[in-house]
Amino acid sequence: MYAETLKHIRRMMAEDNLAPGDKLPSERELAERLGVGRSSVREALRALEFLGLIETRRGEGRYRREVGSHQLIDLLAMFLLENERAKADLAETKWLIERLLLALACRRRSAEDVDELKKIVRQKPIDFARFFETVVEAAGNVLLARIWRVLSGFAASFAPEPPLADAGYEQLLAALERQDPAETVAVWEAQRPSPLSKQAGHRLTNNDVHFR
Asked: Which stretches does the entry tag as region Disordered (predicted)?
């Protein structure tokens, strides 16, 4: 239900010509206008905030957000909201970007990044979000990082991902410390099996994406 509500709110924002900085109606007003429950409105607004299309100002309400001149995040949002294959494609794209970020982090990580990862792994239970955020920062690609955060936020609104096994973190850390992209990717694929779902003559393998 909330996915449909999200589409309706997105359409309403366009119809009302809400510009960056304009305030959205309250949850109650949106629920009455769209004829849905407030819980559906709340979840939809949460997803829009994850996508970077709106922001919440404490004590003031929610506002349309400026997403940048290239409109990349807006384009991603439109695709995710309107495409029937959105969830499958989202999982696929997020997994591929995570694999690429890990490979880049192997090449570019600093000694400080490794020390931070070791500190995270020593603290139980291990915080996956903090661990992978450190990997993302170590990868050193601001655009990929931004896309990943948007996709991760939206994926979390569907269902939270299970944590990795402690041994998986240890193996990833060891491979990152050795700066071995192939080993890092292999460990990641063992911990997070490929969600690639489209068959177009062959299945994408490690040979299709080079980490040299």
From this structure: 192-212
Residues 6+ apart with CB under 8 A from 146: 72, 73
Torsion of CA 183, 95, 42, 66, to 10 degrees: 100
Long-range Cβ pairs for the range 203-210 (8 Å, 24+): 206/182, 209/96, 209/99, 209/100
In tens, the pLDDT along 63-105 reads 998 765 445 555 666 666 666 577 788 888 889 999 999 999 9
Q: 50-55 long-range CB contacts below 8 Å, 24 or more apart?
A: 50/150, 50/153, 50/154, 50/156, 50/157, 51/76, 51/77, 51/80, 51/150, 51/153, 51/154, 52/77, 52/150, 53/10, 53/77, 54/24
Domain ranges of the chain: 2-64, 83-195
CATH superfamily name and code, 83-195? GntR ligand-binding domain-like (1.20.120.530)
Query: Residue 159 class from Cβ within 10 Å (0-12 exposed, 13-18 middle, 19+ buried)?
Result: exposed
In angstroms, rounded to a whole number, what is the distance separating the alpha carbons of residues 31 and 112?
A: 48
Looking from the CA of 11 toward its CB, the CA atoms found within 13 Å total 10
The tokens for 143 are: 């655009």
Tokens of 167: 């041994």
As a whole number of angstroms, the distance between CA 186 and CA 71 comes to: 34
Tell me the whole-structure pTM to 2 decimals. 0.61
Residues 6+ apart with CB under 8 A from 130: 120
